[in-house]
Amino acid sequence: MILISYVKPYIVIRSDKIISGHLSILGIGKKVLWTNEFRNKDFLSIKVKSEWKENIEVVVESDHEKIKKGLSI
C-alpha cells in the first residue's frame, strides 16, 4: 500500500514495502510541475515549491501499481 499526504511544507509518500518507479506532480491542466525517478525506497518527501498553485495531483507509478491523489496545498 502507498500513502500520499501533505504535511506542510512537504508532500510525504510512504509505502509498506520497498518500491522503485516514477513520481510526478501535476498542476492545473495536468501540467508537469516536478518529476523524478526513484529506486528502492519506502519513504519519500518533497518540499513544496512556492510557485506551485493550491491544487496539485501527485502520481506515483511503481513496479506494481499507479496511485494518483489530489492535494490542496
Cα end-to-end separation? 23 Å
Structural class: mainly beta
Shape verdict: globular
Mean pLDDT: 94
Instruction: Write the element-wise H/E pattern from the N-terminal end onward.
Output: EEEEE
Low-pLDDT runs: none
Characterization of the model:
- By secondary structure, this protein is mainly beta.
- It has one domain (2-72): Sandwich (Immunoglobulin-like).
- 0% of the residues lie in helices and 74% in strands.
- The protein contains no helices and five strands.
- Strands 1, 2, 3, 4 and 5 form a five-stranded antiparallel beta sheet that branches.
- Strand 1 (2-7) and strand 2 form a beta hairpin.
- It is globular and about 30 Å long.
Summary of the model, kept short:
This protein is mainly β and 73 residues long. It has one domain (2-72): Immunoglobulin-like. It has no helices and 5 strands.
Features of this protein?
mainly beta; Immunoglobulin-like
List the helices and strands and how they pair.
Layout: E1 2-7, E2 10-26, E3 32-47, E4 55-62, E5 66-72
Antiparallel strand pairs: 1-2, 2-3, 2-4, 4-5
